[in-house]
């Protein structure tokens, strides 16, 4: 394993863990010395990752986001407006998925955080590279959306409801 991959894996471990991870624990997991872990943590900090050292180990100080899944339906002509509505209301669109009656759940990561991300996504759709996933379920689909608070998610939900996109 390269040192770059190891640092990415350390970040994943820290993201998925609610308790501090000790240098010894990380060293054992990645089969390196504790000093190598200390150096990796220093490099991750230098790369702008907010890592806190505690007496029990390292913690990633990541902003806590809440998330909610919204079931929506609209035409392909309304995709851009739907996505703009979410990001303009403070949401980050993690994914889109459908529940297909034959294939089961089909999911695609989106990672849309801004109007520019929406525009890039729409350029890809309009170029004919592929069709929107919702076309296989008559426009019905789901989005996992992250926001800074439940209030922000409530606002997004109300916006989608007012525009007629939210399926209740």
What do you see in this structure?
This protein starts with a helix and ends in a 6-residue tail after the last helix. 41% of the residues lie in helices and 25% in strands. It has 2 domains: 58 residues, Arc Repressor Mutant, subunit A (Orthogonal Bundle); 97 residues, 3H domain (Histidine-containing Protein, Chain: A), CATH 3.30.1340. The strands form 2 sheets. A 4-stranded antiparallel β-sheet has the order 3-6-4-5. The longest helix is centred in the N-terminal third of the chain and has 13 residues. The mean pLDDT is 92. It is an alpha+beta fold.
Give me the secondary-structure topology.
Blueprint (H helix, E strand, L loop, with lengths): L2 H13 L7 H8 L3 H13 L4 E4 L2 E4 L5 E8 L5 H10 L3 E9 L3 E9 L2 H12 L13 E8 L2 H13 L6
Antiparallel strand pairs: 1-2, 3-6, 4-5, 4-6
Helix pairs in contact: 2-3, 4-5
